[in-house]
Amino acid sequence: MQLDISNLQKALGRGAFGGVIGQPVTLSFRQGLLAVAFACIALLIGYFFGSPQDAVFSACVALAGGYMALNVGANDVANSVGPMVGARALPLGAALLLAAVAETAGALLAGEHVAGRIAYRIVDQDMVHDPVQFVIGMLSALVAAALWINAANLLRAPISTTHAIIGGIVGVAVFAIGADAVAWPEISLITLGWFLSPMVSAAVAVLIFTFIRSELLGVQNKVRAARTWIPILIAAMAALFTLYLIAKGLANVWRPTTPVLITTVLAAFIAALAASGPYIRRSSMGLANRNQTVQVLFRVPLIVAGGFLAFSHGANDIANIAGPVTAILHVQKTSDLSLSLDIPIWVFVLGALGLSVGLLFFSSGMVRVVATRITKITPVRAYAIAMATASTVTAASWIDLPVSTTQIAVGAIFGIGIFREYQTRRDLEKRVLEDGATKKKQRLLIRREDAIRILAVWVITFPAAGLIAATVFWGINRFL
Length: 480
Prior knowledge:
Strand content: under 5%
Number of domains: 1
Largest sheet: none
Mean pLDDT: 83
Number of helices: 19
């Protein structure tokens, strides 16, 4: 099945976006030129805005950071774009543009400002003494994470870029200092989040989807039910995403008191309810009393949800790019290992630019996987996925449990697919028992090949990134 990808994509050229959904995606000549052009831009940004004392080194570090940003944009952002595209709420080109703008805004307006948070959360600072080896180690971790994410892009497997960079840091720490340097309780907590959060997200998505099926799709007067429930669901989404933005996306620039937080979330709910009620009534006028009407009415909320997810992703995951780059340049310049500093604005700009370029021109294959290859997505299912993703990430942030937005979003998609297969099997068995129908082979609603590939890459991301980082670290020290 092919999806319309809008006149914008046609204007820029089919190769620019990496191919049309439903067709094989290969690296085009235009994409290669674009990658080279972006590499040159990254080098120039690092050279002119980095450390004047060592401009060439700054340029090389900026190149590594830009390469990482490019791959994060090509991989991670499919989580916010994929459900939108799969549900046909927006064509691919428009969805990519929306996500690029939201990602950039999130990265620049609400990005992480503490450069050493990632490194010294998992490595004992007291055991790090050599500034030169720290610089080589962080650079090795950054390059290793970018290489592994690039490999995941080629394998069409959405992975956690946070886990890749953490795996790289752990690999270097174990190789260079020893296993005692790693904060294994923190690693255990992260590992718990890997396994627990996708299952929670899947369960939440199924609960939301079941509620919508029962109260909107399963009633006799679907239009009246839609006019009653969809404004409430939109208002709930507005309240949740307001909480999500404050807890996850804006935590670095605004931490309101509890009364202010409750008032803000409640105001978002009331405002969304007041605005969506008339809109849904007006949009449903003259529509037929069928399930497709309900699906159509969920499209606009989906677009808003995708924008919110992209904004928060840009605000949060920019740290995986800007944090290591700033730490490397700071220690190289000052030999200060405390890393209590802010990230320069040019590093944010470089990261945001890389995210946007990677998303716009290299992500269509990954979006295709999330949108169509795991299971079929409709607007109702996509709404459940978006709400489950936001609620799970928000809850994890509240209890300070490290999680992956990628795994949570894909876990919600898996949950919907598994539930649909369960429902199909149960209905088939019911017809066999009640009507004496011939038992037929059940149609699979989750693509096993894609699911197994994604899960396998998830499992090996941490050790693979660590092994690559240790190898790069050894190579740099060997040939210096």
